[in-house]
Structures are given as C-alpha cells and as structure tokens.
Amino acid sequence: MQTQNVDTLAAVAAVDLVKVYGSGDTAVRALDGVTVGFARAQFTAIMGPSGSGKSTLMHCLAGLDTATSGQALLGGTDLTRQSDKVLTKVRRERIGFVFQAFNLLPQLTAAQNIVLPLELSGRRPDPHLYSHLTESLGIVGRLDHRPGELSGGQQQRVAIARALMSRPEVVFADEPTGNLDSRSGAEVLLFLRNSVRELGQTIVMVTHDPGAAAYADRVVLLADGRVAGELDRPDITSVSDALQSLAVAR
Ligand SMILES: Nc1ncnc2c1ncn2[C@@H]1O[C@H](COP(=O)(O)OP(=O)(O)OP(=O)(O)O)[C@@H](O)[C@H]1O
C-alpha cells in the first residue's frame, strides 16, 4: 500500500484509493490508486480533464460513494469501513457541501435552509456564527425569502452559510461557481477564500475553471484516475499551463 506522501494529520486523505464502476468488459477504473492529503485550514482545488475522476474522488472522500479498495480518511475515520447509518451522520455533522445546483429546499426560507442540517442532528445553531456568516455573505435582507425568490448568487451564498454553520471538518464544493455569472462567482470564491483565513475552514473544491482554482492555496491535478501533479499558490497561467500539458500528454 502507498502511504508515502500522505500527511496523516490531514483533514482529509485518500490512501491508494481505487474505484471501479461496473464489472467485466464494461468495468471503468475511475480511481486507479489515488494517494493524496488535504491539509487543515487550506483551500485545495481538484482539477483535471473530463473523466479524470474528480467527482468520483470527491464522492468517495465525502462518504457519498463507496470505494472499491484503499482508504478514504476524514480525520481518523476510514469512511470505506462505515455503515450507511454512520456515513449519513458523518455527512450531516462533519462535512459541509456546496453544489453547482445549490440544492436548497424550495419550500423552506433561506434562514430555515441554513440551520436545517444542525437541527436534523439535534444541535443548536451558534447565533454569533449565524450573524457572522449571514452578514459577511450579504444575505441578511434575504433570510425570509424562499430559494425561488433569490438570484443564483444569493442561493449559493445561502448554501455556503448552510455548509459552514456546523463548523464542518471540511467543506466539499463541487463546481460552486458553475451556474453563476463571473461577478457572483468571484464573490463566492472570495468568501470561500476568506473562510479559510478567518475561520480556519478546510475546503476541497472540484472545478474546471483555472480562474476559480487561482483562489485556492493548492491545486491537485488528476488524469486517468491518478494524481498527475500539483501546484502550490496557483495562478491562472500556471493552472492553464498545467492543464494544457496534461491534455498534450494524453
Ligand atoms: N456511475 C458510474 N457508472 C459507470 N462509470 C462511471 C460512473 N460515474 C463515473 N463513471 C466513469 O468514471 C470515470 C471518472 O468519472 P468522474 O465523473 O469522476 O470524472 P470527472 O473528472 O469528474 O469528469 P467531469 O469533469 O466530466 O465531471 C469516467 O470515465 C466516467 O465515465
């Protein structure tokens, strides 16, 4: 088993993670032995060509999908060995999610959406954190509105407040700016960036956009289900160049 290069104190880590979809002639090896750690209080972007395994890696690390072999570590917990019941609890209490399609409940107000995961796990929302998040996200005036009455950018900011309210060990963001115009996207990314600095939040984001990845501290590159490289302190040019080299190497 590959254990080198994995920070065992990382917030999240994959160790020799393999995911095979299907079987026999139609089997697809979506992850082919991925070993990578995601440090606490860091913002990491996962990038790579279409089909390289980005979503599969995120889903296995978030307990949304089961790996075929290897370990998916959240803190000290190997998610590959947990029952569905435990995984549901882990997702609700220890992980925050931000999705491209926002995934807010349409019949609830913004305020109710933000505190829902905490209420489901029987915890009281911290009023100071609630005020801090809703103020810094600029949604105080929209809290009584339902998602259908909010713009895409406002819905995503509500979704971010919901993800951060439980002080999760990690926030997984899947193309969080994919449905937003560039200005709303930049606001969302800046807020995610600031939550790392101000709240010590750990963020792992899948994106196709080099501009979005440039907000991260680090980029992990995947190709064909394997780690193909990484960049520290990325900027748009270094990310675009790295993606270009991966495309040429294929
Ligand atoms: N449920 C599934 N059943 C079979 N194959 C799958 C399934 N999900 C993903 N795959 C395959 O696994 C590989 C990795 O897919 P994955 O969605 O993780 O890639 P990705 O890098 O996120 O792609 P994209 O950038 O296009 O979203 C691809 O070849 C894909 O077709």
From TrEMBL:
Question: Which Pfam families does the UniProt entry name for this protein?
Answer: ABC_tran (PF00005)
What SMART domains does the database record attribute to this sequence? Answer: AAA
Q: Which residues form the ABC transporter domain?
A: 12-249
Provide the GO MF annotations for this entry: ATP binding
Cite the InterPro entries for this sequence.
AAA+_ATPase, ABC_transporter-like_ATP-bd, ABC_transporter-like_CS, ABC_transpr_LolD-like, MacB-like_ATP-bd, P-loop_NTPase
Q: Which residues form a coiled coil?
A: none
Q: Which UniProt keywords apply?
A: ATP-binding, Nucleotide-binding, Transport
Kindly indicate where the leader peptide sits in this chain.
Answer: none
Transmembrane ranges? none
Q: Does the keyword Membrane apply?
A: no
Is Transport among this UniProt entry's keywords?
yes
Q: What is the protein's name according to its record?
A: ABC transporter ATP-binding protein
Q: What is the lineage of its organism?
A: Bacteria, Bacillati, Actinomycetota, Actinomycetes, Micromonosporales
